[in-house]
Amino acid sequence: MKGMNELVRQAQVMQKKMAKLQEDLQERTVEGTAGGGMVVAVVSGSNELKSLTIDKTAVDPNDVEMLQDLVLSAVNDGIKKAKAMMEAEMGQITGGIKVPGLF
């Protein structure tokens, strides 16, 4: 029974660490870029788009599709980097064990 109590205690400690990390990740950001930096998307660790910067040279009224593609690429790059950051941080807490439903 003592072993079970220790296991429950460790799970509670891990749960508290993960909750704190999730709070911290909301404040941390990564940058996704496209077009050699013409479009920059800043994404939080909680996958929230914080800002989007578009260089004026990327704006061509005759090629709106290119700008749309650049924006999509930059945002997707930012989301991918934010997810990788979250997975790396969670992996440190869980010891690399994939816990279903966490990420």
**What share of the residues lie within helices?**
55-70%
User: How many structural domains can be distinguished in the coordinates?
Assistant: 1
Stretches with pLDDT under 50, minimum 5 residues: none
Content-based structural category: alpha+beta
Mean pLDDT: 88
Which CATH C-level class is it? Answer: Alpha Beta
Major sheet characteristics:
3 strands, antiparallel
The rough form would be described as: rod-shaped
* Cα distance spanning the termini: 31 Å
CA-based gyration radius: 19 Å
CATH architecture tag: 2-Layer Sandwich
What is the CATH topology? Ybab, Chain: A
**CATH homology group:** Nucleoid-associated protein YbaB-like domain
Side by side, the strands of the main sheet go: 1-2-3
Strand content: 15-25%
What is the element string, with H for helices and E for strands?
A: HEEEH
Topology, please?
Elements: H1 2-27, E1 29-34, E2 39-44, E3 49-54, H2 64-94
Antiparallel strand pairs: 1-2, 2-3
Keywords for this entry:
single chain, Ybab, Chain: A, 103 residues, alpha+beta, 2 helices, three-stranded antiparallel β-sheet
Overview of the molecule:
The chain has two helices and three strands, in the order H-E-E-E-H. It has one domain (1-94): 2-Layer Sandwich (Ybab, Chain: A), CATH 3.30.1310.10. With 103 residues, it is an alpha+beta fold. It has a three-stranded antiparallel sheet with strand order 1-2-3. The longest helix is centred in the last third of the chain and has 31 residues, at 64-94.
